[in-house]
Amino acid sequence: MILAKETRLSIDASEDQLRAALDARQTRDIRRIDYLALFDAKGSLSFGNLRALPPAPIDGEPHLIAAGDLNGIADTPQSTIVVARRRPDGGTLVLGRNLQDTYAIEDTLLRMLGLALLPTVAAILAIGALFAHRASKRLAGVHEAIARIMQGHLAWRLPAARDGDEIDRIAEAVNLMLDEIVRLLDQLKSVGDNIAHDLRAPLTLARIKLDRALDAAPNEAQAYVEAARAQLDRAGVIIAALLRISAVENGPREKHFQDVDLAAVCRQAVEFYEPLAEAKGVELQASLEGSVWIRGDEDLLREALANLVDNAVKFTPVGGLVQVAAALVSGRPRVEVRDTGPGVAPADRDLIFRRFYRAATGEGAAGHGLGLSIARNIAELHGFELSVEDGAPGARFVMREAAKASLTRTIR
User: Fold this and answer.
1) Which SS3 state, helix, strand or coil, does residue 283 take?
2) 357 three-class SS
3) At 378, which CATH number?
4) Which domain holds residue 241?
5) Both 199 and 335 in a single domain?
6) What's the pLDDT score for residue 242?
7) What residues does 195 pair with on adjacent strands?
8) Are residues 306 and 402 in the same domain?
9) To 5 degrees, how large is the angle CA 238–CA 387–CA 366?
10) The pLDDT of residue 10
11) CA–CA gap between residue 123 and residue 227 (Å, rounded)
């Protein structure tokens, strides 16, 4: 502290030098000392504005004297910092500074802080109330939208303020979920009509054939019965395919997943359909370089590839070519089934994956319109996207790992 330092530096000065320094300090120095005094060895005042030694140890260290306790001073309203040091001649030098100015500055700062704090707190409370009102209003809008949706208005969506906050993210997620629910309901609505349409024809034909068998001669009845059985078999195939789609969609995911080589699965599909392609006059080729390992259900993947190859061979004319390829492209698995058939019109490229949908180019071909739907469901179960592109000529079916599936694996 400055007072202790000054008493220490003046300890070797003579009394006359000390008096001159103290007088100059008291009258001309801006670094004001409120109390200074020099006492002789007997404790009598030699110089200064104190009449008696203060009640503080004479050790050269600063000490706090309570207000009113500084002996010999009539008015000591504030506490005082005092330093007393013994001189070589036995005298005592005392320097002191009251804390009135310090307390005044502190009081001023507190007043200024209070004056500044009140409007700041008021502004914070006002802003908080504004945001709370805004959030409450947004939540009321969300609640109203949910109430409308629960009443059956599935076209209604939760409002989003585009602020990117938690409420917006929840609203966007719920809206995406509602879009998917609407899509599934529309699909479910059309499935019933499609099932009725596709099953009505074979069942009606089967009944007609059986009725004719009852009225026909014995040697003709067998032909009608065989025809009726063929129609019933067709209905059974449709029902089995629908059950298969349901099993893929609703079955426990990843229950039977293991390491599967997609290239080996493609090779098996090519070997299985080679006799059929050869009998039809279609060349079936495989372009498989190395292994393409993924986690999946080998039986389901084999079924998906079989549906794609079967579809390609079915729509490829005599002398045409079907190519099956599997490879890693930019580190992501990719399977292609390409043919030189009539191709798929751009307007039909998403519709052909719907259940029972038959494109115009497929009219007259055998099938029930469920194979591609099964293949897409199996692909999605494994985190893949199945799409059809222009093969120039023909169609090119591509099964690639979905971007979101790749991101999920990266996060894990």
Assistant:
1) strand
2) coil
3) 3.30.565.10
4) 174-250
5) no
6) 61
7) none
8) yes
9) 30
10) 62
11) 86
